[in-house]
Amino acid sequence: MESTARASAPIFTNQKLVRLIIPLVIEQLLLMTVGMADTMMVTTAGEAVVSGVSLVDNINILIINIFSALSTGGAVVVAQYLGRKEPENARSAAKQLLYVALIVSLFLMGAALLFRQHILRLLFGDISQAVMDSALIYFLLTAAAYPFIAVYNAGAALFRAMGNSKVSMVNSLIVNIINIAVNAVLIYGFGMGSAGAGVGTLVSRIAAAAIIGVMITRPSLQVYVEDLFRPNLQWKTVKSILGIGIPAGVENGMFQIGKLLVLRLVTSFDIGVDLAVNGSAVAANAISNSVAGFINVPGQAVGLSMVTVIGQCMGAGDHEQAVSYTKKLMKATYLSLGVSCLCLFLAAPVLVPMFNLTPATAAMAVQVLRWCAVFTAIFWPMSFTLPNALRAAGDAKFTMVVSMLSMWICRIGLSYFLGPAWGMGMGLLGVWIAMFCDWVVRFSVFLPRFLRGKWKEHQVI
Asked: Does residue 193 contact residue 222 with C-beta atoms inside 8 Å?
């Protein structure tokens, strides 16, 4: 009788789900424009500056993914305490998350500042001195922003754990406005190039961290942080956060490294090729990734909401609602991605020429995007949205192992087999087919894992 009564009282109404997800969609769109704004606005400073900024952005994405993973670990713990109706423990966990995020970010900032030239040489080889100079300046300034990015991500995750995603959405808007405004003054007005872009990023990140840092200390919140400057590390709670955060961080980090390895392969396709006749694989890949990133936004937003919804259900011990909400949110993901993928499939031949590509490059991009639309609509939600439900229940190590094996064997291994001329010679399409195979493997493992229910056996708190 008790479980029936509990199941009959929904933890999240449809209205609360909409209020949680819609701001997340807007936030994800806004976050995608921060790095893009830096790259687009420095185009007036020359190709060396653009290249330097773009190279460092690849590293920064990796670092931000690590912070996001740690924040996810904290959000799961906080959400489960809220589901269990233990707000004091939730507040304590929130404080521990901020400590962990700050410690990790300070370590990464120190490593980046001390070894930034060595890191750039290791990852990108012998780049020209002009590109290196721009990259070093931009890396210096953006690395100084790591602690502020970490604080912002932790604060945003805490608000999402409470079911409030509007705060992080507004903060993302503020970040974009400040970043673009400072960039415009320093790049266009003072001709500071990569330094102007770096200062814009640093100032905007400081502002975002300050705003969300002040907001998370308000006692009127369900979860707030008090006495932040009185260190009180609780290792049991830290261990719970890292139990989710470390596997997610390793998974995200390896995923980004894998993308860099594949990108290096794609660049080799253009060596010694008549680009006017055969098209540029690098350009087609860049455009296709940008467009595909936008159509995945609804799925990413629902994935973030999974941490809050499923986390609270598991904390309340209500496995039935955890399963029910997962199915409901997955249906919403398939519906939204189905519509956007159909539009992409039909509109690709009209959309791609807007990027002023050569006919051969445009044809390559259209081909890749149409394949992407089909596979995204079928396999992407189960591969990337569903695993967040498993992580919210504490099943993070399983998702890490599956994701890493699938990525290295399929996305990287098959890319080097299908793409190059010494392999199957499929070029860029072969690289993307390897990625689709990665999705199929994840789909075929994560869905049975969810249906069998083994993920319900984990205990986070």
From this structure: no
